Amino acid sequence: MLASLKEVCGYADKTNTAIGSFNTPNLESLLAVLDAAEELRVPVIVAHAQIHEEVAPLDKIGRVMVELAKSAKVPVCVHLDHGENFAYCKRAMDLGFTSAMIDYSTLSYEENAAGTKEVVDYAHSRGVQVEAELGALPQREGGGESVTSNPEDLYTKPELVSGFIAQTGVDALAIAFGTAHGIYKSKPVLNMDVITKVREKTGLPLVMHGGSGISHKEYREVIRRGIRKINYYSYMSYDGYAAAKTAVEEKSADFYHNLALKAQKAMYENALATLKVFSGK
Q1: 113, 112, 96: which is closest to 104 by C-alpha?
Q2: Backbone dihedral angles phi then psi of residue 70, each to the nearest 5 degrees
Q3: In the annotation, is 81 catalytic?
Q4: What pTM does this model have?
Q5: What count of Cα atoms within 13 Å lies in the side-chain half-sphere of residue 281?
Q6: Which are the contacts of 156, defined by CB distance < 8 A and separation ≥ 6?
Q7: Which residue has the higher pLDDT, 181 or 253?
Q8: b or e along 166-178 (b: 16 or more beta carbons within 10 Å of the residue's beta carbon)?
Q9: Alpha helices in 16-148 (DSSP H)
């Protein structure tokens, strides 16, 4: 069933868990995530990132995401991940997305707040919730590096949180505390105190981006400290690629649709294992 970000994060708050938010840029990844969530009977977020526009145009994959969410056996929030401008966020909301993230995190605080408020005003008029980001990850969505020699310079500053929320009216806040997008080149070092300090400033759902590649112990700790939405994609997608690559090398798939099914099964298994950790099952 189609659900709002408020509804699924409310479930996470009540159960002291986190909702998995998975980018689903093709049908195989979308089915893998929905099947895993239905298997565990847990809410889930399926997301489309603007950077995947060339992989799967929003106007096409977005309609599929909304329709499959409506027919799912569990609550499914359909979310725009890393919207880069108001126009793209508006397109997603007009398609029926129930949540959108506007990512102005690399701009100045003032520009981030003003741009976020523009999206929030439109979203709230349509009953849609908005996520924004304070701080920035050292490796950007899509693999680009943020310009800094010290990743801690990018961490969310807890003292800015209350003012930002008051200015924007945002519904969820993504925070930076040591994670990065993509495949990790070295083990991440997380500053958990950032979560605790931000949590003291707000009761809004807190979001962790760069959720792939974190240990189970670290997942449990960030959830305990108040993270309610965890973005996850890279390692699930890589498992799909690895399964397809093996099938080609072993010549165990003779048609593309069989190759796609092997990738889907591998992504389903990865999503299932991940959701078990997030949901404490």
Answers
A1: 112
A2: -60, -35
A3: yes
A4: 0.92
A5: 16
A6: 134, 135, 175, 176, 177, 194, 198
A7: 253
A8: ebbebbbbbbbbb
A9: 27-40, 58-71, 86-95, 109-125
Confidence of residue 140 (pLDDT cuts 50, 70, 90): very low
Q: How far is CA 65 from the centre of its chain?
A: 15
Please tell me the number of Cα atoms within 13 Å of 26 on its side-chain side. Answer: 13
Collapsed DSSP state (helix, strand, coil) of residue 83: strand
| Structure tokens that stand for 13 in this block | 């708050």
Question: 36-55 burial string, b = 16+ CB within 10 Å, else e?
Answer: bbeebebbbbbbbbbbbeee
Report how far residue 278's alpha carbon sits from residue 281's, in angstroms, rounded to the nearest whole number: 8
pLDDT digits (tens, 9 = 90+) for 212-268: 778 899 999 999 999 999 999 999 999 999 999 999 999 887 899 999 999 999 999
Q: What are phi and psi of 249, to 5 degrees?
A: -65, -35
Measured between alpha carbons, how far is 228 from 224 in angstroms, rounded to an integer? 9
φ, ψ dihedrals at 233, nearest 5°: -160, -50
**Mean of the per-residue pLDDT values of the chain:** 91
Of residues 96, 98, 72, the one with CA closest to residue 1: 72
105-110 LR contacts (CB < 8 Å, sep 24+):
105/132, 105/133, 105/134, 105/135, 105/136, 105/174, 105/176, 106/136, 106/140, 106/146, 109/160, 109/164
CA distance 199 to 227: 9
Residue 199: pLDDT above 90?
yes
Phi, psi of 250 (to 5 degrees): -90, -5
At 36, which amino acid appears? A
> Given 13, 35, 59, 81, which residue is catalytic?
81
d(CA 60, CA 227): 31
Q: Which residues pair with 81 in a beta bridge?
A: 49
